[in-house]
What we know:
Blueprint: H1 2-5, H2 12-18, H3 20-38, H4 48-67, H5 71-100, H6 104-118
Amino acid sequence: AWIIIHSTQGSNLFHALDFFWPIANAFLLVTAIVIVKAKGIKGWKRYIPLFVALLFHLALFLLYISSGRNNATMLIGGAYSVIAWMLLGYVVTTNFSSNSTKSLQEKYESNRKYMLAIN
């Protein structure tokens, strides 16, 4: 997106900003591991953040080894990225909406039990 909007690939600003995607992915990997261990998300949805964090790099690495960096690998990597991030967005929105649909009575009871437990 940065290239489309403003900068050229060779600029120092581009390289500085491009450096942070591996760091962001490392944070996503840590978050994904915590999500899997916490078991707060049920079923297959729990593994989607791990899928996004791990398989993207594994797939690109295997594609680059097998055929090098060409248009096909970039297209496959881009398609994978779109699908994986859409799944992650789906998981986040469905879990958020399922928690917000509790009735007022359910929220009150849950809060009451928590307050009794800490006192």
